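Example (one chain per record):
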Amino acid sequence: MVDIVLRELAGVPDLLSLQRVDRARYPLLLESVAGGNALSRWDLLLAADGNGLRLDADGTTRRLDGMSVDGDFLSALDRDWLAARSDGDALELPFRGGWALYLGYELAAQIEWNLSLGNDAIEIDPHLLQEAFVEILRNANTHDRGEGAFVFEVRREGGSVEFRLTEPKTNLEGTTEDWGGRPLERVRSGHYGLGLFRARGIFEAHHGKYRVHFDPAASVLETIVTLPCSGGQ
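Predicted structure:
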């Protein structure tokens, strides 16, 4: 259980200067540049205790002290997260204890990619679609991830290209109906459902379809995105 201490300060501290004093102790500073809305209330300076995981260039997952860890990075991350998680409390804070997670290009090697497009092409805005797929992967790795690898498949289906992400999922609350279409329905610990809502909007703006299916028997969640090929059929 994480003990949360709330203390009101007399003034607004200079968090950037504090971080510069000891970057090892304070590795991450998140400052809001927005203003005038409920999402711009928080600046976060995270303090580290020396624990953490990293995925090195040789594909080995290690702790920050250099000790290697069994299994892939995502599985090790999930084990650590499950061991440290708590139900928290009703405080309206955008965090529970404080985790900082940076996902770089090295993480792509931890995902099974199966591509079979041949010479087909689709007309897309690559930057927007990149944001949408990154959001789907981020969401998959955040909520109730089970043991096993992500599998990402791309193939031609009739006049469309189908993108299918299969993820191990230990539990699913609610229904997959209208997935990503109801932001702010279940607000919890800084998660507002806006990321998936935006991702869904990007797919639909490309005349695509977005659907999700949960198989409780196999403990997997499938996210399926279909986008029309150039020239239709």
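Caption: The longest helix spans residues 126-142.
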